[in-house]
Amino acid sequence: MTENFPNLLKPLDLGFRTIKNRSLMGSMHTHLEEAPNGFERMAAYYAERAAGGVGIIVTGGFAPNIEGGGMPNATMIDSPGDIEKHRLITDAVHKEGGVICMQILHTGRYAYHPHSVSCSPFQSPITPFKPKELDEAGIEKQIEDFVRCAVNTREADYDGVEIMGSEGYFINQFICQRTNGRTDSWGGRYENRIRLPIEIVRRTREAVGKHFIIIYRLSMLDLVEGGSTWQEVVQLAKEIEKAGATIINTGIGWHESRVPTISTSVPRGAFVEVTQRMRSEVSIPLCTSNRINTPEVADTILAEGHADMVSMARPLLADPHFINKAKAGKSDEINTCIGCNQACLDHIFEMKLVSCLVNPRACHETKLIIKQTESEKRIAVVGAGPAGLAAATTAAKRGHKVTLFEADNKVGGQFNIAKEVPGKEEFAETIRYFKRQVELTGVELKLNTKATPEVLSVFDEVIIATGITPKTPDIPGIDNAMVMTYLDVLLDKKTVGKRVAIIGAGGIGFDVAEFLSHQGKSTSLDKEAFMKEWGIDLRYSAPGGLIQPEVEGSAREVFLVQRKVTKLGDSLGRSTGWIHRTVLKNKGVKMINGAQYNKIDDEGLHITVGNESQLLAVDNIIVCAGQNSQRELHASLEAKNIKVTLIGGADVATELDAKRAIKQGTIVAAAI
Predict the structure, then answer these.
(1) DSSP class of residue 641?
(2) Could you write out the DSSP letters of every residue in 86-97?
(3) Does the keyword Signal apply (predicted)?
(4) 146 and 21, same structural domain?
(5) Whether residue 493 sits in one domain with residue 398
(6) Which domain holds residue 601?
(7) Model pLDDT for residues 237-273, shown as the tens digit of each residue
(8) Are residues 573 and 649 in the same domain?
């Protein structure tokens, strides 16, 4: 047995086959499923993760029929041609020694098309279409389509399937009274409501035989009103085991739940106790999930008996070689998922291809290729924020001789600000990763060094990644002593009074508001406090695991003000913006939109909202109203005919856009 992470790397015997370790790559839809040349790209994407050592890969969800697809163009495995396309994936994964299961996902009322179906005609709060209520024959058809899909999956040489029975999708909709209003044999009593998942698993097992993996994704904690009780969840798990499932995977929360379950503010391994509680009820392996992003966390979860396997989805977007690095004792080299959702889940909502903020090659393996250079160059990178770090380490990996200049005494740039915000502590992991990459790639790092045109004139190419500076709005009295910038607050930790007005309600404004309203230990670092804040009861005293939240009051009276008349936080991520708004609302932060800034004086901030003049009598005013690019070097270098490229905030001054910065730095360095 390996000395490094022995519990994570211990083989798992399924009876008819052995899985090489206890890791499962959780299902993530990527939109490659519908993209041109998507199957070739998925083959490369999954093969890289198989080569990286993961135990079982579960694909993104594929629909069992047209009505079950999330979108009108949802991909299926319904014909001989489909089967051949899927073999591109399975062949590539098996060539790397991997095991891969296809997820069968029927979205039910969560479908974004008018042909959606469900057990009852109850429209979801997050989708625009009311589903058609299935009759008995329609339900039988859906079951048959699940089974046919599984058989086709086997024909495509997958090692198994995952049947998606959680997160509020089609099967889950039958199970819970919240969505099942039927009075026939598929509704009413719990035994009737769980007929669908049991029949699907039982008939699938009969059709595919004994030596085919069937994973059932069970909703162990619904986190919605009208959800299942713990006794009901246990009853279903036992029936699913009897029906022939090989593994039960843990699902947490419905998509319509107003409780965060995977964002960076959720504590690591927040829900593993639910899986552990189920272990005494069934004998087949249980897989736990949600916010497991390091091998240390994964190994501890397994060592403490919380589960038999751990599911990690986004961590394998961030670093496809996660498992092999852990096995080699190189966990400090893992590019850790920070749970930001900006390039994965938010891209799903925006109908974009999924990728990863910290790893822009994710899902672009055939497009963004990092290869050794044929002509070594001397390259200077100015600025060691996310963009500069990505550019410097990528160029050095390719064989260029790179010098990285940083005026500060540390690397990380704006991530040193982000990591100070309660709930964003994970951002420190990206700084740690890049610091290690600087060491490994041989980048010459010059801290406390301001690069001058004279110093840079000896380099073949210069990449400027000097980032941004806060913009000063044109408001009378802006030079008043009570006015501060977000850098004063988050970076320099200057003393802030008890009453505060924040000018600007973009991402930075929200971060400052959370920082100033918070008191005590961050709930993302305190599981018990997190559960209280969001009303989560892992002991299941009420159906769905929800109880009344207990919110700690704010450390300050905070006003969050913006000129725009739109909703505050409109620019925040689709999957996380509601979380930030809820936190600040619960903290009593007063949100003001449509404000005209009249002046600042010793009394405070004078504004007009509509036709009403107001005085916000505050101790301090924090400016979070935009940024300017730092690009003083650019013109002087061009005048010397030095090849120079601007990246990150030095190129485009926007909100602190690390996703664009890291991607741009990587792409530029890959092309030199």
Answers:
(1) T
(2) HHHHHHHHHHTT
(3) no
(4) yes
(5) no
(6) 481-519+554-625
(7) 999 999 999 999 999 999 999 999 999 999 999 999 9
(8) no
Specify whether the CB–CB gap between 162 and 102 falls below 8 A. yes
Same domain assignment for residues 589 and 655? no
Q: pLDDT band for position 217 (50/70/90)? A: very high
Using the structure block, give the residue that is written with the tokens 């959680």: 166
Same domain, 638 and 603: no
Residue 306: CA count within 13 A, CB half-sphere: 24
- Burial class (CB within 10 angstroms; exposed 0-12, middle 13-18, buried 19+) of 404: buried
pTM, full prediction: 0.95
pLDDT tens string 438-497:
999 999 999 999 999 999 999 999 999 998 888 899 999 999 999 999 999 999 999 999
| Residue 342's CATH number | 3.20.20.70
Rounded Cα distance, 488 and 50, in Å = 46
Q: Which tokens in the block code for residue 166?
A: 């959680």
Statement: residue 597 has pLDDT above 80: yes
In sequence order, which residues have a C-beta less than 8 Å from that of residue 112 and are 6 or more positions away?
Answer: 70, 71, 72, 127, 128, 129
Q: In what order do the strands lie in the sheet with 483-485?
A: 483-485, 620-623, 499-503, 557-561, 590-592
Contact yes or no for 13/43 (Cβ under 8 A): no
My answer on whether 142 and 287 are in the same domain is yes
Catalytic residue among 169, 486, 540, 597: 169
